[in-house]
C-alpha cells in the first residue's frame, strides 16, 4: 500500500482522529450542502420558474419532469455525504503530513496563491474529461454513469446527481492535487464554489449565453449549457466541463453543437410548452 494511504489509515485509527473526522464530516456536509441548495435552487427558481415564460424560446430541449427533480435531489444528497467523507480523509492527510492546507496567502508566495486557482480549474477540466470518457466505457456506463444520464433534460439539481462510485471519482480532484502541491484554504473554498456554480449552470436546460458565443475566438473555448445538454440528450460526445479544447483535440465535440446553440439563441421566441414541463 502506498505510504500516504497507509499513514491516513493509521491516523484515522486514533479515537481523537475519529472525533475530528466526525466534526469535519458534518461541517463539510453543511458547507457543501448549503452551496448546493443555494446555487442549484436559485438557478432553478430563476430560470425554470420566475423567468420560464420569458426564456422559453431559449429552452434547449424539454423542461425536466417532476420525477427527474426528485431523483436528482435524492442522489445529490448521497453525493454530498461522500464529498464530506472525502474532506475528512483530506484532514487525515494533513495531520499525517501528506498534504498541506495553509492559511497565510504569503506563505508560498502571492504568485502561487493567485495562480493556484486557475491551475486547479485547468486540472479539474482535464481530470473530468478523461474520467468522463472512462465512465462512458461499456462497463461503467451500464453500472455507474447511467444514474446521471437518466436525466436526458436535466435541471440544476442534477449537478451532483451521481452514483456513489461516480461521486467518489469526482470528489478526488482537490485531494489528488494536495498530494502534489500545497493549497491555501481560501483557494480550496473558492474552487468548491466555482465547481458548484459551473455544475449547476451546465445542467440549466436553458441557454443563457448570447448568440454567437461559441463562435467567438476566445469565448468559444468555454463550455456552454447547450454543449453539456447535448451530451445528456445523446450520451455521446461533449465530455468536457469547463473548456472545449479537449473535445476539439480528441474529436469528441458533437457536429450539431453550433446548430443547436444557434437554434436555442435565435432572436424569435418559440413555444416553450412541453408535456414534460417543470414545476411552475
Number of strands: 2
Q: Please give the radius of gyration in angstroms.
A: 20 Å
Q: What would the principal axes of the Cα set say about the shape?
A: globular
Q: How much beta, percentage-wise?
A: under 5%
Largest sheet: 2 strands, parallel
Strands in their spatial order, largest beta sheet: 1-2
Q: Give the N-to-C terminal Cα separation.
A: 53 Å
Secondary-structure topology with pairs:
Blueprint: H1 3-12, H2 15-50, H3 66-95, E1 101-102, H4 110-135, H5 138-149, H6 164-170, H7 173-178, E2 183-184, H8 185-202, H9 225-234, H10 245-249, H11 257-264
Parallel strand pairs: 1-2
Helix pairs in contact: 1-3, 2-3, 2-8, 4-8
Please tell me about this protein's structure.
- By secondary structure, this protein is mainly alpha-helical.
- It is built from 11 helices and 2 strands; from the N terminus they run H-H-H-E-H-H-H-H-E-H-H-H-H.
- 60% of the residues lie in helices and 1% in strands.
- The chain has one domain (3-264).
- The longest helix has 36 residues, at 15-50.
- 36% of the residues are buried.
Give a summary of the structure in a few sentences.
Helices cover 60% and strands 1% of the residues.
Provide keyphrases for this structure.
single chain, 280 residues, mainly alpha, 2 strands, 1% strand, globular, disordered C terminus
Amino acid at each position: 500500500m502506498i505510504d500516504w494511504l497507509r499513514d491516513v489509515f493509521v491516523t484515522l485509527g486514533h479515537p481523537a482522529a475519529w472525533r475530528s473526522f466526525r466534526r469535519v464530516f458534518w461541517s463539510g456536509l453543511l458547507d457543501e450542502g448549503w452551496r448546493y441548495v443555494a446555487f442549484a435552487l436559485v438557478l432553478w427558481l430563476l430560470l425554470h420558474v420566475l423567468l420560464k415564460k420569458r426564456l422559453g424560446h431559449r429552452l434547449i430541449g424539454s423542461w425536466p419532469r417532476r420525477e427527474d427533480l426528485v431523483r436528482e435531489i435524492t442522489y445529490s444528497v448521497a453525493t454530498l455525504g461522500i464529498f464530506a467523507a472525502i474532506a475528512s480523509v483530506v484532514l487525515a492527510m494533513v495531520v499525517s503530513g501528506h498534504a498541506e492546507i495553509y492559511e497565510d496567502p504569503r506563505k508560498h508566495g502571492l504568485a502561487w496563491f493567485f495562480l493556484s486557482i486557475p491551475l486547479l480549474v485547468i486540472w479539474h477540466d482535464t481530470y473530468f474529461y478523461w474520467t468522463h470518457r472512462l465512465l462512458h466505457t461499456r462497463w461503467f456506463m451500464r453500472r455507474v454513469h447511467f444514474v446521471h444520464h437518466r436525466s436526458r433534460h436535466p435541471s440544476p439539481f442534477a449537478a451532483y446527481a451521481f452514483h456513489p462510485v461516480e461521486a467518489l471519482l469526482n470528489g478526488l480532484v482537490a485531494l489528488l492535487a494536495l498530494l502534489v502541491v500545497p493549497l491555501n484554504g481560501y483557494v480550496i473554498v473558492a474552487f468548491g464554489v466555482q465547481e458548484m456554480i459551473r455544475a449547476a449552470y451546465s445542467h440549466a436546460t436553458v441557454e443563457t449565453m448570447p448568440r454567437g458565443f461559441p463562435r467567438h475566438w476566445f469565448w468559444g473555448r468555454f463550455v456552454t449549457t447547450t454543449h453539456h445538454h447535448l451530451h445528456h440528450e445523446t450520451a455521446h460526445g461533449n465530455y468536457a466541463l469547463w473548456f472545449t479544447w479537449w473535445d476539439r483535440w480528441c474529436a469528441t465535440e458533437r457536429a450539431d453543437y453550433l446548430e443547436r446553440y444557434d437554434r436555442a439563441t435565435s432572436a424569435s421566441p418559440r413555444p416553450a410548452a412541453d408535456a414534460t414541463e417543470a414545476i411552475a
